[in-house]
Design brief:
This is MFS transporter. The chain is mainly α. It has one domain: Growth Hormone, Chain: A, CATH 1.20.1250.20. Helix content is 76%, strand content 0%. α3 runs antiparallel to α4, α3 packs antiparallel against α16 and α3 crosses α17.
């Protein structure tokens, strides 16, 4: 009876709007990888330059997310969770509409940067708002639902990118964000934030994360546990067609379909990880189990030979399922810190992980020449998993923690 009541706590407007916001966020975030090849071909980028230019544009987007993570996180703690949530949606919606009209790589890069800047604010604000608005006994359900609906946005993006011209796909992404802005009416600010706002406590002090050794260690560990997810998405899934040579694929996998299978798995995994964290009463053990499954799937991909399209799509589904601890990962970050820093942490941590794609992809490309495609992938992949395992081993489990405290 307790579990049923706890799950029913998610059926409210705040969780719904946060979930739909993350849906649009993920739709727009993954739209570029899905339309990368046709959009670059339309601009005359062919052959080996597809990887280099594609990585450049992805880095511009992720660089915007790094900067935006800090900006929106500070605003979330200083001005409120709602202003951050809807301000970020407005910015990336406008950027994606503009992206539909670009005619060259410089303009494309500028739009990806602005879109990344906007995309940076939504998830942290959504998770913080939901976590502070729900009973502590059931907030894992709320963040799981937000993540699950959000990940469904990537599947929708894959289908949109597959069946619509790439310019039309960007217009759809921007239009969805504009429509979502009308749902702002009726949503209230977090009561916990409002009380802290009135108390005069210093809020959104990003630099304070670096002035205390214990606080800094917690912060870094929260970032590192997310690295394997973006290695899998940023290298194995996005560049799956390029692995066809050394792995001797017997089929020709579609990037859009591979992304759809991967994020379909992430959607299921997000729900499963959130529910398991509630049922098992632990966050860190759930992250550990999913991380081990992700490592197993990575090894299966890089050691496989002669796989056909169906086998690759099945593996993409497994890798996505194993990456489904994203919901729990962001919740852990939000629960580690007090109300006066919670939005800053919950916004910067996932965006620093996303921004780490810049380091991951550049490392992958730099090592490709001396080590080969597979050797480079093994080296970068094992480094991300090793750092994540170290980070997880030192994090305190936060399941059921009372969030009404300050740093």
């Amino acid at each position: 009876m307790t579990r049923k009541t706890g799950f029913l706590d998610v059926l409210n407007l705040t969780v719904l709007v946060a979930a739909l916001g993350y849906f649009v966020d993920m739709f727009d975030l993954l739209l570029f990888p899905i339309v990368r090849q046709p959009s670059l071909l339309a601009m005359g980028v062919t052959g080996p330059r597809q990887i280099e230019v594609g990585a450049l544009l992805l880095n511009w987007q992720m660089g915007g997310m790094l900067l935006g993570g800090i900006l929106w996180g500070i605003l979330g703690d200083k001005k409120g969770r709602l202003s951050t949530l809807f301000g970020s949606i407005a910015l990336y919606s406008v950027a994606n509409v503009a992206n539909a009209f670009v005619g060259g790589i410089p303009a494309y890069a500028a739009c990806r940067f602005l879109a990344g800047l906007g995309l940076a604010g939504e998830l942290g604000a959504a998770v913080t708002l939901v976590s502070e608005s729900m009973p502590r006994e059931s907030r894992g359900y709320g963040t799981a639902l937000v993540a699950a609906v959000g990940m469904a946005g990537t599947v929708t993006a894959a289908l949109t990118g597959r069946y619509l011209p790439w310019r039309a796909a960007y217009l759809v992404g921007g239009g969805l964000g504009v429509l979502l802005l009308f749902l702002r009416v009726g949503i209230r600010e977090s009561f916990i934030f409002a009380r802290t706002h009135e108390s005069g406590v210093r809020r959104g002090d990003f630099l304070s994360l670096f002035t205390d050794g214990g606080r800094l260690t917690r912060y870094v560990r929260c970032i590192l546990i997310g690295l394997p997810m973006w290695f899998i998405v940023g290298i194995l899934i996005i560049f799956m067609p390029e692995f066809g040579g050394p792995l001797r694929f017997s089929g020709h996998p579609s990037p859009a379909v591979a992304v759809a299978f991967c994020y379909g798995g992430i959607t299921v995994g997000s729900v499963l990880s959130g529910f398991l964290s509630q049922w098992w009463g632990t966050r860190t053990k759930v992250v550990g189990v999913f991380m081990a499954a992700a490592l197993l799937g990575t090894a299966a991909f890089l050691l496989g030979r002669g796989m056909g399209a169906a086998g690759l799509y099945a593996l993409a589904l497994w890798l996505g399922l194993a990456c489904g601890y994203w919901a729990v990962f962001v919740t852990v970050a939000a629960e580690q810190f007090g109300t006066n820093l919670r939005a800053t942490v919950a916004t910067t941590v996932p965006n620093f992980v996303r921004g780490a794609v810049v380091l991951i992809t550049n490392g992958f490309i730099l090592l490709k020449a001396p080590l080969g495609l597979l050797g480079s992938a093994w080296t970068v992949g094992l480094a991300t998993f090793g750092l994540a395992a170290w980070a997880l081993s030192g994090l305190e489990d936060t399941h059921g923690r009372d969030l009404d405290f300050v740093e």
